[in-house]
Amino acid sequence: MQANRSRDTGPELAVRRLLHAQGFRYRVAIRPEPSLRRRADIVFTKQRIAVFIDGCFWHGCPEHGRPEFQHNTDYWPHKIKTNRDRDINTTDSLEVAGWRVLRFWEHEAAESVVSSIAATVRAARS
């Protein structure tokens, strides 16, 4: 599991490249709220927008996540559920603190993800 990246994954890099090419500037892998021990993948600090690009396996994607496991059958379902519960808690905590939270799956097309992010950032600027 050491080889699994916590940041700079392929889907994140694709989204960040497209955002940067469109002139957007953002912070990468920071805590939106210092008191919350969780990092967002992309953060627009002035607009208070936190973007998460969740991996299908690790976050239990309904399309691509595994419904069953052949090995460590007690561990993996619990691990995935814990990750999903933490995602919900993170979203709730940030929204209570005044942040807009955007979550995307790694399998979503980078262009559509960027389109959604860009629209949200532009709306927050006006």
Features:
Endonuclease, Chain A, alpha+beta, 126 residues, 3 helices, 4-stranded mixed beta sheet
The CATH superfamily title: VSR Endonuclease
Q: In percent terms, what proportion of residues is strand?
A: 15-25%
Question: Radius of gyration in whole Å, from Cα?
Answer: 15 Å
Shape: globular
Q: Please tell me the total number of domains.
A: 1
Helix content: 25-40%
Q: Say what oligomer this is.
A: single chain
Q: What's the helix-strand series?
A: HEEEHEH
CATH architecture field: 3-Layer(aba) Sandwich
CATH topology value = Endonuclease, Chain A
CATH classification class: Alpha Beta
Strand line-up in the sheet with most strands: 1-2-3-4
- Unreliable residue stretches: none
Question: Count of helical segments?
Answer: 3
What do the pLDDT scores average to? 93
* Secondary-structure content class: alpha+beta
How widely separated are the two ends? Answer: 43 Å
Largest sheet: 4 strands, mixed
Helix and strand topology:
Blueprint: H1 10-21, E1 27-30, E2 40-44, E3 49-54, H2 75-96, E4 100-105, H3 110-125
Parallel strand pairs: 3-4
Antiparallel strand pairs: 1-2, 2-3
Helix pairs in contact: 1-3
Describe the structure.
40% of the residues lie in helices and 17% in strands. With 126 residues, the protein is α+β, with helices and mostly antiparallel strands. It has one domain: VSR Endonuclease (Endonuclease, Chain A, 3-Layer(aba) Sandwich), CATH 3.40.960. Helix 2 links the parallel strand 3 and strand 4. Helix 1 (10-21) packs across helix 3. The mean pLDDT is 93.
